[in-house]
Design goal:
The chain has about 110 residues and is mostly beta strands. The chain contains no helices and 9 strands. A hairpin with a 7-residue loop joins β2 and β3. The chain is globular.
């Protein structure tokens, strides 16, 4: 059993519109983080996770996730599974989302593409 307290989590930022808090257990199979998004993320193009599936749970807010072939409207308490290699971008005035990746997220597997 492992626990990471809130004050031990690592705050970060992907852009002005996307602030993150990472809870890394050092486990290669799974991780969790919280993102607060206020606008379009990424600012242009799409983001894609080349390796991990992302399980997203919307804690607060609402908005849209745009994929190449569809748009998903989401709001508080919705859960979204994003498969690896799926291009998408966020559009929201405000949302806070818990994001679990399996296998664990790493910067090398995450890209912003046009």
């Amino acid at each position: 059993m492992k626990i990471i307290k809130k004050d031990e989590a690592i705050a970060g930022t992907n852009s002005n519109e996307c602030k993150t808090i990472e809870y890394s257990f050092g486990d290669k199979d799974i991780d969790i983080g919280v993102a607060t998004i206020t606008g379009r993320y990424p600012e242009s193009g799409y983001c894609v996770n080349l390796v991990s599936k992302e399980l997203v749970y919307i804690l607060e807010g609402s908005g849209k996730l745009y994929f190449e072939d569809q748009t998903i409207y989401f709001s508080e308490s919705d859960a979204i599974l994003i498969e690896n290699n799926k291009k998408y971008y966020w559009e929201t005035d405000y949302c806070k989302a818990s994001m679990t990746c399996s296998p664990a997220w790493s910067p090398e597997q995450y890209k912003v593409v046009e």
